[in-house]
Design goal:
With 137 residues, the chain is of the alpha+beta class. The chain has a domain of 95 residues. It contains 2 helices and 7 strands; from the N terminus they run ββαβββββα. A 5-stranded antiparallel beta sheet has the order 5-2-4-3-7. It has a two-stranded antiparallel sheet with strand order 1-6. α1 packs across α2. It is globular.
Amino acid sequence: MSWPDPYTDVSESWLAATQQVRCGEDFHAVRVPAGPAAAAHARLGHQGPVLASAYTGVWYWLLPVKAISSATWKVAGSRVMPTGRLISIPPATARTGPDVHWIVPPGQGRAHADMLAKALSGQVVKASTRRFHPRSV
């Protein structure tokens, strides 16, 4: 099944229900515990897409496939989900709640691996709001 592109297809109808999507095909997901993730989000500004779940206590930054790999990501307290690992992707309209929802919804902001690494390390970084395609890096 082909998954809609969360970076360029921002219509509210692109995903009607939460789906399980494999990491490493259209994006890589950086998994971070909620506390450090919220602090990094405050340092980064509105860069995304970013998912969160109060139920699991984790956030995920979705980054372009070629931007990072689990072999090269060396940021303490976070990890790149292995290729093929399933994560839940909610409807574009899911913005709150205990289950998986968007902190930064699809089509808003632009997450960069190097900026995320700096923010997770406690550094303040300058935000970018340009849209991009996940395979464009």
